[in-house]
Amino acid sequence: MNLTDYVKQVSIEDFGKPFKHQAQWNTRLRSTGGRFFPKDGHLDFNPKVYQELGLEVFRKIVRHELCHYHLYFEGKGYQHKDLAFKQLLKEVDGLRFVPPLSSANQKPSLVYTCQTCHQIYQRKRKIDTKRYRCGLCRGKLLLLNRPKD
């Protein structure tokens, strides 16, 4: 699929306005479906969203980015917080957030417990158990599970 041609097609069909810039895949995107760059007007899209969630969800993400694009070039509020953006997104049935991807590189959850009061702590980052203690009773912390690196 030629991404720029697809975005131009969606822009004409759903907005009735032309898309005059470039659209490209960006494999470095992790937590977002796409990005709009006001400086040069191009759009980046996450290829994993298209591969995992399909064309229907991807089209809604394209609509979302085109809302930013068209509002910016019309001189209206194009940010997520702006009323004009929220209204246009609702009109064209765009997605506000990307559904979670199964292939997202999520860090494994680390589980620590206090040896004294048995308080449980879940963390994404390692805790230095020689330096830090339980916040309730000042007891020693013990790592319960070893993550697979």
From TrEMBL:
Q: Where does Zn(2+) bind?
A: 64, 68
| Cofactor (UniProt) | Zn(2+)
Q: Where is the active site?
A: 65
Instruction: Provide the cofactor note recorded for this chain's UniProt entry.
Output: Binds 1 zinc ion.
**Any Pfam family hit:** SprT-like
Specify the SprT-like domain's residue ranges: 1-144
Q: Which residues form a coiled coil?
A: none
Protein's cellular compartments: Cytoplasm
Alphabetized InterPro entries for the sequence: SprT-like_domain, SprT_Zn_ribbon, Uncharacterised_SprT-like
Origin superkingdom = Bacteria
List keywords of the entry alphabetically: Cytoplasm, Metal-binding, Zinc
Q: Is Metal-binding given among the entry's keywords?
A: yes
Q: Which family does it belong to?
A: Belongs to the SprT family.
What this protein is called in its record is Protein SprT-like
- In its UniProt entry, the species of origin is given as Streptococcus taonis
Q: What broad taxonomic lineage does this protein's source fall under?
A: Bacteria, Bacillati, Bacillota, Bacilli, Lactobacillales
